[in-house]
C-alpha cells in the first residue's frame, strides 16, 4: 500500500523556503503563530513530507493554544508523542494550524483567530474542528495534516475539503502532549490526499509495521441511521455512489441494525461537556468573556450532569462497544460522512442555527468515537459538490479498514 511517496520527487529545501514565505504571508487564517521546521532525518518513512500540526499538540519551543486566547502563555518544553514520531520519521513540520476553540465543534469556526475559507467552495466553511489542517492540505501547503477527532473533527473537514480523513482506533496512537476535549472519545489521526498517505502516517504514529491483510468485511448501509434530515443532494449522491460500487462488483447490504437504536438512546453530548469541564476547570476561567460564547455554553451543560448520571452514560457506552464486537464483528458500516454539504458562513447567524447545523455535521461521524472504532472518510464529487463516503469498523480493525478503503478509493475513480 505504501510504495508511493510523491513528496520525494521535489527538492525539500527549495520547497520549505517557499513554504516559509507562503505560511507567513498567508491571507487566510490557516495558522496560529506560524512556524516551519525542517527535518534532520533524510531516510525516514516520511522524509520529504510536510506535515501540518493542529494547535492542540505540543511542539517544542512553541505555545499550545488549542485555538484559545486563554491558553498558550508558555512554550512547550518537548514534543507531543505524535509530533515526536513524525519528526523521527523525517517529516518537516508546519503549524500550528487553526481550529475551533478547545476543539469543541464540527464546523471549524473560531472568533479569535478567524476561520479559513473552504478552498473548494468560496464563502463556505471548511469543517472542523481541524479546520486549518484540512485547508493546509487542500491548498498544497502540507502533504498530511495531524489532528484530533472527538466526534468527527478529521472526517468532517476531510469531506468538505475533498480529502481522505482517518480516525484510527483510540489506543493505537499516543495522546501524550495533546490537549484533550474528551479523554473518552478523542482519537489522534490524519488527513491527506490519499488513503496511501493516511496509511503511511498512521503506521508512523502507531509505531506499527505494515502487514498485508485481507479484509473479510461485510459491507452494510444502515436504513435506520445516517440519512434523517440529510440534504437532497447528499441523498442522491450517496445512492448514486453506492450503486456505482455495486455495479463494479462490491457487495453491499442494506438493513436496519439494532446497534443504531441503542446508540441513539445515549446522551453523547455528555462526554465532551463533562470531561472538558473537568479537565480545563483548573487551567482556565470557564466563565471568561475571552472564551467563545458558543464553546462556553456547551461546556456549561456539563454542570447539570451528576457523577452518577455520567457514570451511567459511561456504562451504557461500554455496553455499546461490547455489542459492536459481538453483533458486528466483521462489519463495515457505510454512510455519508456528513448529512449536508459544506454550509455557507452566513448560515450561522444565530446560536440556534449554529447548534442545529453543528449537530447535523457531527451526527454520523460521532458513532465511531462512541463505539471506540476506526473510521475513514473518502472523497468524491457529485454535481460539483465535495462529499464524503464514510467507512466505520470496530476497534482494532485499522489495517483491514485501510486496505478496504484503498480498494474503494480506486473504484471511486470511475464514479
Describe the protein's topology:
Layout: H1 12-25, E1 31-37, E2 50-54, H2 81-88, E3 92-97, H3 131-138, E4 144-149, H4 155-161, E5 164-167, E6 187-192, H5 195-206, E7 218-222, H6 232-247, E8 252-255, H7 258-263, H8 269-280, H9 293-300, H10 307-327, E9 331-336, H11 351-370, E10 374-382, E11 385-393, H12 398-412
Parallel strand pairs: 2-3, 2-4, 7-8, 7-9
Antiparallel strand pairs: 1-3, 4-6, 5-6, 5-10, 9-11, 10-11
Helix pairs in contact: 2-5
The SSE string, one letter per element, is: HEEHEHEHEEHEHEHHHHEHEEH
Radius of gyration: 20 Å
Percent strand: 15-25%
Number of helices: 12
Overall strand count:
11
Largest sheet strand order:
1-3-2-4-6-5-10-11-9-7-8
* Uncertain regions spanning at least 5 consecutive residues: none
What percentage of residues falls in helices of 4 or more residues?
25-40%
- Which sheet architecture does the biggest sheet show? 11 strands, mixed
Please, what is the average pLDDT?
95
Strand-pairing-aware structural class: alpha/beta
Shape: globular
Q: Describe it for me?
A:
Helices cover 35% and strands 16% of the residues. It has helices at residues 12-25, 81-88, 131-138, 155-161, 195-206, 232-247, 258-263, 269-280, 293-300, 307-327, 351-370, 398-412; strands at residues 31-37, 50-54, 92-97, 144-149, 164-167, 187-192, 218-222, 252-255, 331-336, 374-382, 385-393. The chain is globular and about 50 Å long. It has an eleven-stranded mixed beta sheet with strand order 1-3-2-4-6-5-10-11-9-7-8, sandwiched between helices. The chain has twelve helices and eleven strands. It has 415 residues and is α/β, with parallel strands linked by helices. The two termini are 22 Å apart.
